[in-house]
Amino acid sequence: MGTVTAAVRTRVVARLRDALGPQGVLEAPGDVEKYLTDFRGLYHGSALLVACPRDTTQVSQVLSACHEDAIGVVPHGGNTSYCGGATPRESGTEVVLSLHRLNRIRSVDAANHSMVAEAGCVLADVQSAALAANRFFPLSLGSEGSCQIGGNLSTNAGGLAAVRYGVARDLVLGLEVVLADGEVLHGLSSLRKDNTGYDLRDLFIGAEGTLGIITAASLKLFPVPRTVETAWLAVPGMQAAVDVLARLREATGDCVTSFEYLPRIAVEFTARHVPGVVDPFGDPWPACVLCEVSTARHDPQLRALLESALGECMAAGEVLDATIAESIAQREALWKLRESVPEAQRHEGASIKHDVSVPVASLPAFLERAAAAVARVAPRARLVAYGHVGDGNLHFNLSEPEGGQERAAFVALQSVINDAVHDCVREFGGSISAEHGIGRLKRDLLPRYKDPVALATMRAIKRTLDPKGILNPGKVLPD
Known about the structure:
Largest sheet: 8 strands, antiparallel
Number of strands: 17
């Protein structure tokens, strides 16, 4: 898509104003500005306008109008993407489609352990609606107070409980999707079994709005956890963490809900920069793990199982020290330490981030290999590799060298560092994007790391569902 003529611009704007009403179209620079910059400040675009439909019918009207004149449409949720997936390009020829007004919980079916939520529902509100019906929606992210369920599904978000419940894709029963030409795909099934052909929902989950706009989802719910035990463990390193994970999964009957790895440097950064955060241990252990186990029943034996398993781990040298939260306040303090790592790292200057995954058993070897590869390129950079060990997902981040004098040289090495890390990921059969998506940031990396047949198939699907290329142009698929 190229330039937009004045006549086309006038026609599309008029159609959208008529369809959405005065509250549904934002054009004033002060109203539009917040939709034009991504969460990390990497991209700043421009737009014809921001469309704010209130329901699926209005989303359909927006897409129908834009499809007719080949106007790009950029879906926008809570704007928490790390990859620039919700930011328009600089051309000013695209319409931003904000879904924040589609924020209704349409239904909760406790007996079926399911609910239907619109795409603009904030994740925390989805969780609360489930709890109000004595049910549990397990997707949990650091941004859950602002991210929206449509964006979570469009990026196939992972989160803190994927080791037990899976990623966003695993929590969906059905979808309602508006296609590029405005047609509505009515797929809000609450069935666990439906073998009537292609499972179309998986096309749109993780597609980042490039194949259709998710407007509502039928979500899986679970029994509410009644017994939760949270432990903070000191470990010698990644191999010990992987070994402890295996022991705890077996000892507790696979009740491990979260298993988060933090190297020493991540704990130090967080204790240094985030008010109220303290290191639970006085000794500078090499690494720590935040582990949580839970069951849906009142189980006074769960803590004893955890303590017994940790005792075995300590005897084997896999755990060096351990503490188990004695109260909700202590549990929240441990989680605050873990969830504050990104904030703390920002205080240490420029960073180069990687959201990667490898098989869990390969994590120790990958970490060693990738750390060595990066050290050859940027020997003074500080490695902060932390994250969701339970599902093989590491946030392999680098902070600039101490002092700040080498910032420019460090940032200039970004592409070289990225290649070094991603090449190691490929060696271990991993993914260059575990849970943050592709967006604009990683779009041009796909030809190097994606199977060419898979990439060609993705292009064919895109051409079929979006022949004019209006859906989130410039994202996911290289031009």
